Amino acid sequence: MPDPDLRARLQTDAETLGQSLPPLLAEAELLASTIMMGEHGRRRAGQGDEFWQYRPAHPGDSARMIDWRRSARSDTTFVREREWQAAQSVTLWVDASRAMAFRSERSTVTKAERARLLALAAAVLLLRGGERVGLSGGDTPPRSGKTQLLTLVRALSSPDGAQEYGAPDADGIVSHGRAIFLSDFLGRIEGVETALARASDRGARGVLVQVLDPAEEDFPFDGRTIFESMGGSISHETLRAGDLRARYLDRLAERKDRLQSLARAVGWHFHCHHTGDAPLPALLWLYRAIEGGR
User: Fold this and answer.
1) CATH of domain 87-290
2) Is 133 helix (H, G, I), strand (E, B) or coil?
3) Residue 226 burial (CB < 10 Å; 0-12/13-18/19+)?
4) Exposure string over 131-147, b if 16+ CB within 10 A, otherwise e
């Protein structure tokens, strides 16, 4: 006979899930639908059935690679290339720390809400293209299909963590796969360094997307101000907040430069997105970067 307590918990979980999932999923699918994908392809040469392009033959190309019909119309010998169609494995890490819950009056969403939206919209695009998508940590390995999308939504809708600032988790990244890290990256930089090193050791390539609130970018504070972390463990009061602006902006610029350098060193891409901006340009950049188009 079913356990009444278990049945009650399942009902509560289902109702909670039903309230949170449809808006997130609907918004992500709507955002993804605005990107006209056309016939999906990996846009690089390799094994596959679909024609991609003709290119001049190079030394070392075998005779069977040459398209003699196309070559007969020119003085140049051409090779017919097919599009590479092997599915990739893409692993997502979305910062769930307390710092990501920040939202100033200059934005309509928290950093966490925007990061989750971008992650899920990217997953929609990738899954539609036949890729495998999962989450770091090992509990949600990359898989394909509509069922996997629902699994991702459930995981991304889980409660925020207890840490003040997050550090990327490289566990679960597939060898020679792809990875997407979304965070404000305002915590200890060592965590980013470690995760990128581990991902690089596995031959993985990917992107860092820094999500910041407009107030974190512009520092529009002046006079008496109390700065407090979202978890309350860090607090600083000043009577002249405006005097801190130049130093803060310098530190922020240094952090961005450091993230850019770390990404470049391992063949990754870096992008900074503000929650006050529309999400579509960031999604388009993210999708092109992870597909190798940038």
Assistant:
1) 3.40.50.410
2) strand
3) exposed
4) bbbbbbeeebbbebeee
- The model's pTM is 0.76
Token digits for 116?
């989750």
pLDDT tier, 3 (very low <50, low <70, confident <90, very high otherwise)? low
SS3 label, residue 209: strand
33, 228, 265 from 164: Cα distances, Å: 34, 11, 27
CB 117 within 8 A of CB 282: no
CA 74 to chain centre: 45
Q: What is the pLDDT of residue 81?
A: 64
Collapsing DSSP states into helix, strand and coil, what is residue 207? strand
Q: What distance separates the 2 farthest-apart alpha carbons in the chain?
A: 80
More confident: 199 or 6: 199
- Strands of the sheet with 140-143, listed across from one edge: 140-143, 132-135, 89-94, 178-183, 205-212, 269-274
Q: Give the per-residue pLDDT at 53.
A: 67
* Partners of 134 in beta bridges: 91
Beta strands in the chain (DSSP E): 51-56, 78-82, 89-94, 132-135, 140-143, 178-183, 205-212, 225-228, 235-238, 269-274
Domain parsing of the chain, residue ranges: 40-86, 87-290
Computed over every residue of the chain, the mean pLDDT equals 83
Quick: pLDDT tens for 69-85.
888 888 888 777 654 44
Residues 171/136, Cβ–Cβ less than 8 Å: yes
Is 131 a residue whose pLDDT tops 80?
yes
Cα 100 to Cα 107: distance, rounded to the nearest angstrom: 13
> For the purposes of burial, counting CB atoms within 10 Å of the CB of 82, is it exposed (0-12), middle (13-18) or buried (19 or more)?
middle
Beta bridge partner(s), residue 236: 227
Partners of residue 135 on adjacent β-strands: 92, 140
